[in-house]
Amino acid sequence: MADVEITTNRVLDPSTASFASVKGAELFSYLPAYYERSxxxxxxxxxxxxxxxxxxxxxxxxxxxxFVRTATWGIDLWEQELGIVPDATKPLEQRRAVAESKxxxxxxxxxxxxxxxxxxxxxxxxxxxxxxAKWSFTITFLDTIGVPPNLSDxxxxxxxxxxxxxxANYVFRYLRIKEIHQxxxxxxxxxxxxxxxxxxxxxxx
Length: 205
Fold this sequence. Notes:
four-stranded mixed sheet, alpha+beta, single chain, elongated, 8 helices
């Protein structure tokens, strides 16, 4: 009796490769070639693949909860673990920033620690300078335009980690004339918040 060659993991014919499920198409590709035209097997693999798609999506979503920057429904667990009072009215990004800064806030107080915590709130560059004569330090937002929307959260975290005798100053960056004049269109200006142009750039805590 002649051997029967069975081809697996083949490339499906595009004209017959319409699957609702990604995993269903993959499962079908492992079947012997004589199932190529079988509607029953295609439907069976597609249904099973749909279940596998849902399983893989659930696994991926669960995996994301192990990281603060990608947590969604798991942010409640991070807040509980870190002793943060949940505030469901805040955007998810701000809640993630609070949790991340809490994780970064451990250890000895230093400029690097302050910079690390502040950077968790704003993904841009942050500068930190100390003025020993005035018992103060200044956090400067180098990339963020205007006042960060979650400044109050950052202030609360800095207050937790800094020594009580030090004063925290915050310097914000606003749009300058050279960044506006002949550089931005009317449409671009209309999309900017008024606070991006506001005067006064130092806030003392």
